[in-house]
Design brief:
By secondary structure, the protein is an alpha+beta fold. It has helices at about 5-25, 30-40, 45-50, 70-85, 145-150, and strands at about 50-60, 65-70, 85-95, 100-110, 120-130, 135-140. It has a 6-stranded mixed beta sheet. It is globular.
Length: about 160
């Protein structure tokens, strides 16, 4: 088997991971976290999916759903964009331990047809591949009850089907 581009990619990822760790010490989020927030704040759902390993998972524990693979994860972002105007993630701080990054953030937006916007604290854990280049697992923790209360919606509200 030939060396090919894989070792070069691994070296590039390792360099990026080292730079990201150094950036955390300077209070800037690691590159993968900045890219993750930028993908959530952007309009191309594929940008979020592209950050994940091909078999990566995304668990939104606020509503109790898990998505598998880049296509499903991109689909989740597309659905969120249909249901929430101005969906936005603001990273407050990060903590890295090995291949896991804990992100404290504010998750905000305006549910379609809700009287008020919401802005709630969220904690996300991102598990990374061995090179720190791709997300293998994402778990978002936030209070759906708080999102609904801030939005002026009843606790039993369910999103409309597209």
């Amino acid at each position: 088997m030939t060396a090919g581009p894989r070792p070069a990619a691994a070296a590039l990822c390792a360099t990026a991971a080292t730079a990201a760790t150094a950036a955390t010490a300077g209070h800037r989020p690691p590159k993968i976290v900045a890219d993750w927030a930028r993908a959530w704040n952007g309009t191309d759902p594929r940008a979020l999916g592209a950050l994940f390993a091909t078999d990566g998972t995304y668990a939104d524990l606020g509503i109790g759903v898990t998505f598998h693979g880049r296509r499903e994860i991109a689909g989740w972002k597309a659905r969120a964009d249909l249901l929430i105007d101005d969906v936005h993630v603001t990273v407050r701080d990060t903590r890295r331990t090995g291949d896991r990054i804990t992100v404290r953030a504010v998750y905000s937006g305006h549910l379609k047809d809700a009287p008020e916007p919401f802005a709630v604290p969220m904690t996300t854990t991102l598990d990374l591949d061995g090179h720190g280049c791709r997300i293998t697992a994402d778990e978002d923790h936030y209070s759906l009850a708080t999102v609904l209360a801030q939005s002026g919606l009843p606790a039993d509200w369910t999103p409309p089907t597209p």
